[in-house]
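Task 17 of the worksheet. Students: predict the tertiary structure of the chain below and write it out as structure tokens. Keep your answer in the requested format; marks are given for formatting as well as content.
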Amino acid sequence: MLAPSPGARVGARRIGVVLKGYPRLSETFIAQELAALERRGFALAIYSLRHPTDAATHPVHGEIRAPVTYLPEYLRDEPPRVLRGWRAARRLPGYPAALAAWRADLARDRTANRARRFGQALVLAAELPADIGHVHAHFLHTPASVARYAAIMRGLPWSVSAHAKDIWTTPAWEKREKLASCAWATTCTRANAEHLRSLADDPSRVDLVYHGIDATRFPPPGAQDRPAPPGARPIVILSVGRAVEKKGYDDLLPALARLPAALDWRFEHVGGGPQLPGLVEDAKALGIAERVRWLGALTQPEVLARYRAADVFALSSRVAGDGDRDGLPNVLMEAQSQGLPCVATAVSGIPELIEDGVTGLLVPPRDRDALAHAIARLVADPALRARLGRAGRERTSRDFVLERGIDRLVARFDGAVPAPTNPSDRR
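Model answer:
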């Protein structure tokens, strides 16, 4: 076990954190939460269901001290390990209850993925060190299933942080059962919290915990950090997000193509994603390819530099065909922390951050004309950009601070991971 960090909760059991993949560039909000919990003295151990696919990492990943264990991504890849896990797990007192829970789930979801979740849970339950006193999952779908089955086997409490796609693509019956089984749950938007509370037998079990901004990583820009005033250069419109359906980039590009011809602008996109090649072709077909820069996935310091070099931030989120949607995109808070005026769509938790005409501009999802009009207003009006950028920064720094959410998580975990009664239990 690693030495305790400064201010560690001496004698407290470690928390096993189950993640879908680690580390991931697109999940900075998880990394900053783990780093903050370690700073508060919690000892963590990370269990990832998948190996990383990003070539780069954020600096915050290097600050996290927790050891990382990769569970079998596919059971066929590590059959001896899965077999050892099953042999050890079936001797645990909670194994019959976990097996019954999995069989009940399998009866309603006869998929290979459901079988894989139980196999991963067998390995997790067998390999958890004795000093793990609580299991916490990020995302309500696959990671929560693995955490739930393993925690039942080991007789441990478990909890979950629910975010976006995992909430809206998980069937109601499964959400109800997980909320009844877990010790507590958190989620990152009021809309999410109201939905989950409506499904929980005890609504007080669900907390609203905004991700928030870490001001040490996104300090307010100084005068030297801002771009030169527009004049000889075009207005830079920035968007940060994966190229997937729920981000609505196939709405944003046509909106950009509808901007008045007299406006001088350039669009920059940060992020990867499966739709990216198609979007590059769309920009060519729309006749705006020469105004667009595709920057790909960037590290957090590189993204911060792009915020500070931009004049407007745009995000055209929508509900995807399978129900997937954003929660409250961290990129909007990050952009606002840098004084960037934002135009976004009124989807999910976004109106909890952006008040139309006060802290940014909101338009209906899928309304390309309204989106084009809002962007055009910001491009053409420097005074409006300054007013909304200032108001957005004030709102974010006042109401969306990382440490406020960490305070709530600390209170929950403090009640969940007391010191062991028998010191010999620790190792």
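Marker's comment: The mean pLDDT is 92. DSSP finds 17 helices and 13 strands in the chain.
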